[in-house]
Amino acid sequence: MVQLSQSAIVLLSGGLDSATTLAIAQSDGFLCHALSFRYGQRHAVELAAADRVAKNLKVKSHRVVDIDLRQFGGSALTSEIAVPKKASTEEIGGDIPITYVPARNTIFLSFALAMAETIQSCDIFIGVNALDYSGYPDCRPEYIASFEQLANLATKAAVEGHQRLNIHTPLIQLTKAQIIRRGLDLGVDYSLTSSCYDPDPSGAACGHCDSCLLRLKGFAENGVKDPIRYVSQV
User: Fold this and answer.
1) pTM confidence score
2) pLDDT value at position 105?
3) CA angle at residue 164 from 14 to 59, to 5 degrees?
């Protein structure tokens, strides 16, 4: 375990995965600075969830950065393209879905890298997952390894030998059920989180987008009821 004074940047969307990642970073002894983004996402209610999670887990700081990715569109999350709905998780897979936001994790990690260098932190946590996920290319282990290599070529602190950046992906080889079990063991309050790509105006989850279906499957496999509100549920 690291010294408690060792700081880390944790990308916090307000969803299930990022909340679990934050809890893991804290359990590993890191003093955590949460970083969230208002990027024009249609499911901006997740930022309220990120605030709830950050306060509940008592992070050292929580910053919300504004980036307008709606200028580029190209995703159902940043344009008026309809979010695909499905009947079950068996329909998830194949082509990269329209909910993929072009270069999103690269953009987020770049901001986290800048923050890490500024506060002299060597550690960034991100809740990407390569098993129960929708097929996004920037959630794969080879992408993370390449970005970490880039980060250590691109910063003054690394080039001068003062800092070697580590990108931690504690969920990358876990199923959604395993992620939820780890979070429950760490005391994560999942009622504070929001995962839906297309929530209703009150913030209730749709129950049929990829994110909802994978979340529901994970809770079901743990024999635990998902504590958030749903408009409809399969």
Assistant:
1) 0.93
2) 96
3) 30
7-84+101-195 is classed CATH 2.40.50.140:
no
User: Which residue type does 175 have?
Assistant: T
3-class DSSP assignment, residue 25:
helix
Instruction: Find where tokens 């509940």 sit.
Output: 56
- The DSSP line for 51-119 is HHHHHHTT-SEEEEEE--GGGT--STTSSSSPPP--SSGGG--SSPPTTPPTTHHHHHHHHHHHHHHHH
Query: How are the residues of the chain apportioned to helix, strand and coil, as percentages rounded to the nearest 5?
Result: 40, 10, 50
Residue found by looking up tokens 């504004």 in the block: 66
Nearest to 169 by CA among 138, 209, 191: 138
* Residue owning tokens 């080039």: 159
Per-residue pLDDT, 1: 52
Question: Is 22 within 8 Å of 32 (Cβ atoms)?
Answer: yes
As given in the structure block, the two tokens for residue 204 are 């209730």
